[in-house]
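Need tokens for this chain, all 184 residues.
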Amino acid sequence: MATNPNHAVIGTTSTPLDVPGGLYVNGTQIITAAGAITADIQATAGSIGTAELADASITPAKIAEVTTATATADGLTTGSITALTGFKKFVAVTSASATNAITLPGITAATIGQEIFLTVGANGYELLTPASSNTTINQVDSDGTNQLDVAANTTLRCTQISSTGWLAEQIAATAITVVAPDND
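Here are the structure tokens for all 184 residues:
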């Protein structure tokens, strides 16, 4: 592992850290004498470089999640997609009717760049954004009367492109399209 000259070194593999009374940082106990971690240990921005990460330490399981959603008449409960815990979310959607809905999660400037992939089988659905959020899908406010119609047997790739906007691309067996939300 590379050593950053600006970081303190505490013990080595040949001389481990031995703190019988526990480890304290600026008067706050971080590790008890028994070895239990008692406080969050956080890195500052830019303090961990790629040379300090073990090979294969960043895996798809750590940056992506897989879940399911069932479209509902109003896009709530099982039709709501929860906020992402990683950078990508893969959602298997089931829908009993093309007029049922799925609702994207709320977004902020801090989540720009996240992606959600929604794959549906036999029936399509309508894609919404949270009520009164003023969030757009393909430049159209989609939290009220407008929604994006998603065709059956497709995957929809939704990329957050601003603090209030999603870009949705519909992927089918023979084409990739960008469809404008409409008012049914």
